[in-house]
Design goal:
It is built from 5 helices and 4 strands; from the N terminus they run ααβββααβα. By secondary structure, the chain is α+β, with helices and mostly antiparallel strands.
């Protein structure tokens, strides 16, 4: 039994299983350090959660999500909200003294809301 088969959820060939396999493949290579922490994007059907994580310490240095009160009130599309979340986390990371990060898409395809978060973080001045 392969590692990906044992450590992912869902039936063989399902979307959930494929996302789990991509996630394992990405996490094998992407590691956040103190100089270059990891920008983690977690996506649900309605919301986007973004964290800047230092894996050496296991600490979250900055975070933002669409669950915040000011973003919940807006009538923008999900992609526009994701771009705003990327800008917010970029500004908070800059305030914490972080200039560059490693982008962790979390097994999601680099498309749509995940790409919008990355674009927003770049607009805020983070180097991905």
């Amino acid at each position: 039994m392969g590692y990906a088969l044992k450590h992912t959820k869902g039936n063989r060939g399902s979307k959930l299983r494929m996302r789990g396999r991509r996630h394992l493949r990405v996490r094998r290579r992407v590691v956040g350090t103190a100089q270059r922490p990891r920008l983690v994007v977690t996506r649900s059907a309605r919301h986007v959660f973004v964290q800047v994580v230092d894996d050496a310490l296991g600490k979250t240095l900055a975070s933002a999500s669409t669950m915040e009160a000011d973003l919940r009130q807006t009538e923008a599309s999900k992609a526009d909200k994701a771009r705003t979340v990327g800008t917010l986390v970029g500004e908070r990371a800059k305030a914490a003294g972080i200039d560059s990060v490693v982008f962790d898409r979390g097994g999601n395809k680099y498309h749509g809301r995940v790409a919008a978060v990355a674009d927003g973080a770049r607009e805020a001045g983070l180097a991905l």
